[in-house]
Amino acid sequence: MSPPLLEVKDLAVHFPVTEGLLIEREVARVRAVDGVSFAIQAGETFSLVGESGCGKTTTALAALRMQDPTGGSVHFDGEDITQLDDDAMRPLRQRMQMVYQDPFSSLNPRMTVRDIVAEPLIVHRWGDKQRIESRVGELLEQVGLLPDMIDRYPHEFSGGQRQRIGIARALALEPSLILCDEPVSALDVSIQAQVINLFMDLQDALGLAYLFISHDLSVVRHMSDRVAVMYLGRIVEIAERDDLFERPRHPYTRALLAAVPVANPAAAAGRDAEMIVGEVPSVRHPPSGCRFHPRCPHALPRCAIDMPELQVVPDASTRVACHLLDEPESSGGN
Amino acid sequence: MTERPPLLAIDDLSVVFATEGGDVHAVDSVQLSVAAGETLAIVGESGSGKSVTALSVLGLLGGNGRVGRGEIRFRGENLLNLTESELRAIRGNRIAMIFQEPMSSLNPVITIGKQVAEPLTLHRGLSWEDALSEAAELLARVAIPDAAERLNDYPHQFSGGMRQRVMIAMALACSPDLIIADEPTTALDVTVQAQILDLLQRITHDKDAAQILITHDLGVVARYADRVAVMYAGRIVESAPATTLYANPAHPYTQGLMASIPSLDGTPGKRLDTIEGQPPNLAALPPGCAFAPRCRYARPACHQTAPSLEKIGPDHQRACYHDDALS
């Protein structure tokens, strides 16, 4: 079996908190990402979900070496890229691209669509002018933009069309992996579906893998093959899509799913059991033991002391970091 | 619920903004009402006019906006005929508004305690000491932990969810009859969103107040609204009780919206139905129905005159010429 396209092991990103003007000294460390492992196969969609501050974006950036990890390893296509310098990373950059959340601020307002989409091709010396020109035309068609839009500027487009321009730019160098950070969150509801369909069509046509970040669990369920749920810098549950959404095991995953309002008035009943109180604590002062224990409706005494490790759930692909799994009467119960 | 006389009734409201490119009709012929104890959701995408409708209730349109015609009756009194000082007595007192971004609604250099207490001295004539202890009580009611100790904190010391709770506490200070919440949880995480919306819901019921909830999120509408008005390009295209709207959406735009959202109980991976085309440009609206260019049922008549809102069932109205859009 071929190695995964991207494999992250025990990834850590710690930020120093410093004090002092002339002589900075480290007074604390923020463990934004702490011991995260996952793998992405070619052609699949792997999603990271969680609330703000859970470390999903930092994890993804470190996995693509756009942020330096402070611990752990990253393999891309079997090659250890954890320590590669910028020069050595450059050829790999072509194969991993990014689509951003905000199509209004991620496109240079002074560049035409042609310039925006051609830029990565020029930077990576992809070909001569003529080849680049025809490649840009091909890309616009691929993302559903009309050829006569090529000389327009970003402000002449709606949010959905701008996101298409950003996608065309990301596709230019034929990547194998695209990091999509909240790519539809800023779009109107009627436009979201168009862009989601485009992502899925492109995946079918080009065999792309997506590392998908979203807070919208309905979109995540629709798009993903596998999903990891993060809480305060750690993965608490990682599973195949259907396992995660139909048989969520971790109390936090259940709370997250219960909090999502479903567009069906009849579905509103019976969710109160899983509602959680309070808010995500500061990542600067994470709770002891299981980081979720102060908000967990099922917390046991040992949850405040021992940090649970991810462990395999019998009869499922799921791995869960929760002490409740060791308690026979409560495991998997609702 | 519709048997009760409406607390707020908006009739034939039109709002125009003067811009360099000419007049923009942000709200056109809007008609809606909300009764005590009821939550009315106004749903729409950006530019649909849902926020402008709410701002016009409060007389907060700003310099370049004006009400072109229509009436906004609150307890039978037309708010549009009131002077600014009469309106100020109602605003923040009988009608409270909660905005999307709590950080920009709070003054960053004034303590939380002072910001919550001050309206109590103004609207209810409390002494400063009484106002402060009432403020602590209000903050406790919206589930801010250690409320009394946090009166001296500044807004930046509160999280986004906590700041929104402070806004709700301020909105509650004078037991308003009507709470208008404009995307109150859009900037918040989903577990906090559930807590905030549950809180607003409980307050609305406990105090027999009315709530207008402005949102783009059809999930939020399904969970919290009694009735729904769907807006598109400044007009209401459909209004109905929430259960009716989800079971039998009758306007092609509503139907398109419902079909286009991925849901937690849908089929993952299948192509989503889409509403083709782009949202309309309010400064250059086509004649006739604004949705016609994107509508699969559109026929020549749709491009000539905009259909008006007509009753098609009990408490169910829509603005559309097409009987074949009705399933």
| Biggest sheet descriptor of chain B | 8 strands, mixed
Straight-line distance between termini of chain A? 37 Å
Distance, first to last CA of chain B = 26 Å
- The rough form of chain A would be described as globular
Topology of chain A as a string of helices (H) and strands (E): EEEHEEHEHHHEHEHEEHHEE
Alpha-beta classification of chain B: alpha/beta
- Mean pLDDT, all residues of chain A: 90
Strand arrangement across the biggest beta sheet of chain B: 6-7-8-3-9-10-12-11
* Count of DSSP-assigned helices of chain B: 10
List keywords for this structure.
heterodimer; A: 334 residues; alpha/beta; eight-stranded mixed β-sheet; four-stranded antiparallel β-sheet; 22% strand; globular; disordered C terminus; B: 327 residues; 10 helices
Describe this structure in a few short sentences.
The complex is a heterodimer of chains A (334) and B (327). With 334 residues, chain A is an alpha/beta fold. Chain A is 28% helix and 22% strand.
